[in-house]
Amino acid sequence: MTNQDLLYHYFSNSLTAEQEVVFRKLLETDAEFKAEFEYENNLKKAIKSHESDVMKSKLKGFERNLNAKKLFIFNYKYLAVAATLALLIGWFGYNSIFGTNYSNLYASNFTEYPNTVYTITRSDDSNTIEREAFIAYETRNYQIAIDKFDAIPETSQKSYMSFYKAQAYLGLEDFGNARRLFQQVLDENNEFQGESTWYLALIAIKSKDKDQAITYLEKLISNHFYNKDKAKELLEKLN
Fold it and tell me: How far is CA 202 from CA 105, 174, 192, 225, in A?
């Protein structure tokens, strides 16, 4: 696979795990490849923030700066291909060529939900399983947190526990179990309805399920206040 292919697959979010290792290594060791990457990255930003005519003008400015400062090493053929690609993107739109970068959308919008239901203090000498579960959660020992939540007797289970166990599964990147538990929160009309809808949308984005993500975001915007503005921004990016 050529360097050009690696760059294409990176910006179209289609690198395999093996290709990503090669890509990261080249960024660290190959100055020419890094320069090509930075050029493409600048080009992407220009495309997303300007109309076609402004974008083409900025591209020319990039080329003049590159020639004047000698920051990048490109041959004539590469510049011609990049310029042609820029014109095509101007006409057809960036996403239609490179596609939506779902991993970046997920990473830029995901934050771990804080423990807001169980206060842990140094003076608290109780040794309940629930306390141990939330200590594990706050210290990001997610598997221990899950095991502790599961060990709580059914008679002592509380409605918010499914939500936090789902969060722990997210921390382990076990999206299947996280999705199941967030959906359970919605089905049982438990606490954290809006929050669960938000995280279900993010899981759909991570899974590259655009239609499902849009459905959850629209439900969030219509029925809840949690992250409503962020949901609107994310919906615009997906559309």
Answer: 8, 13, 15, 16
